[in-house]
Design brief:
Layout: E1 2-8, H1 15-18, H2 21-28, E2 32-38, E3 51-52, E4 62-63, H3 65-76, E5 83-93, H4 96-103, E6 107-112, E7 117-118, E8 128-131, H5 141-152, H6 161-168, E9 184-185, E10 188-189, H7 192-195, H8 199-217, H9 229-246
Parallel strand pairs: 1-2, 1-6, 4-7, 5-6, 5-8
Antiparallel strand pairs: 3-4, 9-10
Helix pairs in contact: 4-5
Bound molecules: ligand 9D3.
């Protein structure tokens, strides 16, 4: 079973997101366990101060090394060494591939960064530093939750059979358009092929739509994937059309 520890100055932030739906069910079924730790509990000073002014001056505060390193070391003390993850804007950008790597660990220890940043010496106790993307948040708590959500759903048994089947046929393309009832809504009809019952044609339509969507919205995803000869021809035709329009 995967055990996750989170060290944060805002443990309450995690309660509601993980108290609902799939993650909660995974915890109830003991597929994962989550333990929240308040960084202030690792302070030895009366006022439990977790931040301090930066040497050299400048705006903002810096997370003090002593409570942070005490917290990490106390969690590492047990039988399972664990992978220590610092969430920070300077980290490697999180990806599905990383989620799969983390899902293979048996213990993850998240340290949520805050303020302008953490004292540099904390990094010597960290195995991975992860950002969730190039936008500015107020702290590392939401990123830790995003990472945990992506990891937990990959653990064996967490998803229902319907969802995990979709996972097996994971495609590097964007998804094709989905429809449910009614057959016509606000003058927009469900494509006939989806109501035809021709499963082979439906499969082909969906694959073509997925390819078209990816071509329009995320051409970067098409660079390193293997397509069938028919799909390669479609893609070449679309690229030629696009060139023609530019002339
Ligand atoms: C002025 C320099 N800022 C860096 C872009 C300072 C700064 C902004 C925001 C320092 C920390 C933060 C708080 N963000 C995180 O701790 C964080 C984060 C993020 O802001 N975006 C994406 N991933 C992450 S992981 C942790």
């Amino acid at each position: 079973m995967l055990h996750i520890d989170v060290v944060t100055i805002f443990p309450d932030m995690f309660v509601s997101p993980f108290g609902e739906s799939i993650i909660r069910r995974a915890m109830e079924r003991q597929l994962v366990s989550l333990q929240l730790h308040n960084l202030r509990d690792f302070c030895h000073d009366r006022h439990r101060v977790v931040d301090d002014y930066p040497y050299g001056g400048g705006a903002g505060m810096v997370m003090r090394p002593e409570p942070a390193i005490r917290a990490i070391q106390s969690l590492r003390d047990g039988d399972r060494r664990g992978c220590v993850i610092l969430t920070s804007p300077q980290g490697d950008i999180f990806s599905q591939e990383m989620a799969a790597e983390l899902a293979d660990e048996n213990r993850l220890i998240f340290f949520c960064g805050h303020y302008e940043g953490v004292d540099e010496r904390i990094r010597s106790h960290v195995d991975r530093e992860i950002s969730i993307g190039d936008y500015v948040l107020t702290g590392g708590e939401l990123p830790a939750m995003v990472i945990i959500d992506a990891v937990v759903r990959l653990l064996p048994g967490v998803l229902g059979s319907a969802e995990s089947l979709a996972e097996e046929s994971f495609s590097p393309l964007l998804e094709y358009p989905h429809y449910t009832r009614p057959a016509e809504f606000e003058g927009m009809a469900v494509p006939d092929v989806l109501r035809s019952g021709h499963h082979q044609q439906i499969r082909e339509w969906r694959r073509r739509q997925a390819l078209w969507r990816t071509f329009c919205r995320r051409p970067d995803l098409l660079e390193n994937i293997v397509l069938s000869p028919a799909e390669e021809r479609l893609l070449s035709a679309w690229k030629a059309d696009r060139k023609k329009e530019q002339l």
